[in-house]
Amino acid sequence: MLVAPSILSANFGRLDEEIKAICGAGCDFVHVDVMDGHFVPNLTIGPVVVGAAAKVSSKPLDIHLMVENNTFFTELFAPLKPKYLSFHIEEEKHPHRLIQKIKSYSISPAIVLNPHSPLSSIEYILEEIDMVLLMSVNPGFGGQSFIPSSLKKAERLRKMIDSAGLKTLIEVDGGINDKNVYDLKNAGVDIVVAGNYVFGSPSYKNAIDSLRV
After folding, report:
1. Assigned fold of 2-210
2. Which among 74, 174, 190, 207 counts the fewest CB atoms within 10 Å?
3. What DSSP string describes 120-188?
4. pLDDT per position as a tens digit, 90-121
């Protein structure tokens, strides 16, 4: 299991130290939640702060857009060259067009599904993306409890991907800990995003290691 700690739960008063700490603890990606206060009821960080984070991170960025104007925000964050740039299918009217735009920056495109969103919404563009991010909480705030139905959704998505002969990765975000990570692994999940579980732990390394099942 690959691990992407979400800096939404980090101490922003010493963000550079926090990012260096999770990288030193062996994380695979640094997950960045970008919220605009419109698509979700929270407002987080912009490209200036994320750019500073990219400079101190020794691991690739995994940027998750929770915004209304995906194209505008893609153009803001693409110059930072994250590994993944993900957007919500619920908000995008022209996902194929946006996918091609993300690819034009040599960035791996990913699509995010809220807990209620059906897998059928990405059926015809699954082969165009490199990762699907399944939200296992309602997006907007950290520290929420894992929604159990996310497991069945991950299982069905894995079957969709495998039956199509694709290499698309599955990432899950929300309420992840050392207990439910085993079920997620069995469901076919490749990457877990963990915020409070990592940054609330006295040892970032022990927390990250406990998710590697």
Report:
1. TIM Barrel (3.20.20)
2. 190
3. GGGTTTGGG-SEEEEESS-TT-SSPPP-TTHHHHHHHHHHHHHHTT---EEEEESS--TTTHHHHHHTT
4. 999 999 999 999 999 999 999 999 999 999 99
